[in-house]
Amino acid sequence: MEQYNYLLSLCVILMSTKIFSIISRRAQLPQVVGALMAGLFFGPAVLGALSMKLFGIQFCLTPSPLLSRLAELGVIVIMFTAGMETNIQDLRASGKAGFVVALTGVFVPLGMGAGLMYVFEPGIAMTSAIFVGAVLTATSVSITVETLKELGCMSTKSGNTILAAALIDDILGLICLTIITGMAGEQVNLTLVFMKILGFVGFVVIMGLMFYSFMTWSNKAQDAKNLRRYPVMGFALCLFMAWAAETVFGIADIIGAFSAGMIIAISPKGNYIASKFDTIAYLLLTPVFFANIGLEVTIPSMSLSLLLFTVALVIVSVISKLGGCGLGAKLCGLDMRESYQIGMGMVCRGEVALIVAAKGLEMNVINEAYMGPIIIMIIVCTIITPIFLKDAFKGASQSKEYGISDQFELSDKLDEVTESMLDAETNIYTLLKGRMYE
Amino acid sequence: MEQYNYLLSLCVILMSTKIFSIISRRAQLPQVVGALMAGLFFGPAVLGALSMKLFGIQFCLTPSPLLSRLAELGVIVIMFTAGMETNIQDLRASGKAGFVVALTGVFVPLGMGAGLMYVFEPGIAMTSAIFVGAVLTATSVSITVETLKELGCMSTKSGNTILAAALIDDILGLICLTIITGMAGEQVNLTLVFMKILGFVGFVVIMGLMFYSFMTWSNKAQDAKNLRRYPVMGFALCLFMAWAAETVFGIADIIGAFSAGMIIAISPKGNYIASKFDTIAYLLLTPVFFANIGLEVTIPSMSLSLLLFTVALVIVSVISKLGGCGLGAKLCGLDMRESYQIGMGMVCRGEVALIVAAKGLEMNVINEAYMGPIIIMIIVCTIITPIFLKDAFKGASQSKEYGISDQFELSDKLDEVTESMLDAETNIYTLLKGRMYE
Predict the structure, then answer these.
(1) Do B373 and B310 meet the contact criterion of CB atoms below 8 Å apart?
(2) What's the pTM?
């Protein structure tokens, strides 16, 4: 019977993320926060611990290989749709600012993180201190992207800079990790890393040209009326590029997915393809992605000094990213508000931070005791980012012609229009069917 | 690096099922056949065996826990959408015929299968002979449903009878299996089975009333403008009922999913919900479901007498279902062509047959040597059903006002209309966004 439990898990995830999202929205918080809370609440951290205390049995949603795979697919689809919504012109315009923001956003947390370690454990080895710093460098942009999409702020100047910075951040983080693991004992091969990054750029250009030609050809060919093949081919491109990015070029899979999205955005039928991924995202993959983050959390028991360290780590992680990226943005001539928006958008940490920490643990340069604080730091950053981000963009948005609440209303109206179109479509279809079988 | 291989597998599955489907359609075969062939071709059966012979390494798609879970979700979504497209009135009208068809469709294969065993192995124990017969009783309706949907013949009289019969067939098969496993040693508890079936009917009614009231209330409540929650709630209902059917009532999960679909069909916003599952089905779950069937196949090596037995088993399995169900349909007053359509639609075997066989093997009443022939029988039935079914409905459909090819054209036109609607939507959206951020 246990083999069917995944059905119930998915059901609970869909229901709870939806209900918690609705509650979040009523409370003027981004819906993403609700989805994260749902996983935390129904997972081992809250419901699991509670039921253990009350009934002596742990009764909660638990992480499973299926859920983590679906969550991985979820983040790939989020970045893929972000790519499809990105205007290359805009992104290129934000490229220089993005590079500077990413650079300061890597080095300030790295330095401050290492500094914190020297304060708490004065005799610590330099590699260990730097490794904890490295944990703080990796921004997890997917939650920021989902929040920006929800707020409709993806194509603002700040949104584009965040996106550009996050993409470059991943590559810088990669170089950083290569150097640090090299310092900690393994051989370092920076040339190879740069070659792979260059190789990936070439790969994206080649895939782009191939897909563009294929779509142009297919669009002209006689059976161009069958539309389903285009989203399928687009998704296949996304999966292939995500796979290739990780396994061939050693770059994050989400960068591959994002690049695939950008390719599709400029290809014929791009709009049509983009319109199809919305459903698969909100109906299955995105809820699982967000809930799964919460599910993976187990709150460790800690001593007072570790608790103090945790608080300090959280503060350092937030301030260093906010300050570092904000500084970079300011240096590039963005105004104070935009710099704050960008800094806030980059605060989010996620699976990459966890992976770096796990690697440090494996290499014996990070003490196991620090894993608890690191996990809590990631959770706190993940939850506060959307909250502060919404606030940061609210101010910015109200100075424009329409506010955010207006936009929600407009997007709701659009949904209504779409629904009536769909009703019309159903009616036409029923009519046709009726004529056919009468 | 291996942890990312699922991305490549999914990419190959999406590409290959799509390309093979297009080829099938060009060859005037149902697209479902192409999707099945894709899994067979890229799986261990063909590409795996070939690469083993040529290069000494097996290089092919292989079944994985993720793929089988996604395939299970796929068949659940197929049956869920079938439920949403079912008109309860029509189904009720076909109920009596469906019952008779299911009844003859269970007993004729049971008898003929057992008879075949007595011919090939005269001294066989009665339970063993009957068990092989039982393997032949379970129709796997999902492939038939997908073919009927593709042909646009779901709501014909034959289509409705097939659907009704397949649903009753599952329940009869369940009773049958209970009796036979009881005969083979375990305790039999028919009363409990009937109680559970009655309980399930009550459960469906209660869930239906609850969901209907919820949707009516939600439709009137003030925030009824947010549409995304409806498909999410519908999917949650589907998953919950599939889970409950299996674990609480001991009935197949697909019957639970189908019932959930029927509930949604009669609820407010039912059309809107139904329109959303098309994408998630063709973009991810259905291709994986069909490819996975092919992937699970490994062709066993067999002796000449077993080969003979295999041929006989295939013939008996096809003829007994076709004859049994056709007879039942004829008895209910359907005409010759309709009886043939119904018989052909019920020929398809699938995972249930495999499960029954595995249970027999486990209980030592089915000899292991027969597993190879049984697997081949299932593959052959699965592949020929859509081919003959298309042919059977082609004749029937041409006597109506429109032919099948007309319908494809109409549905293509509809797709074009939808696309231009979507383009309009994108334009409106871009316009609104532009006004908002200028």
Answers:
(1) yes
(2) 0.79
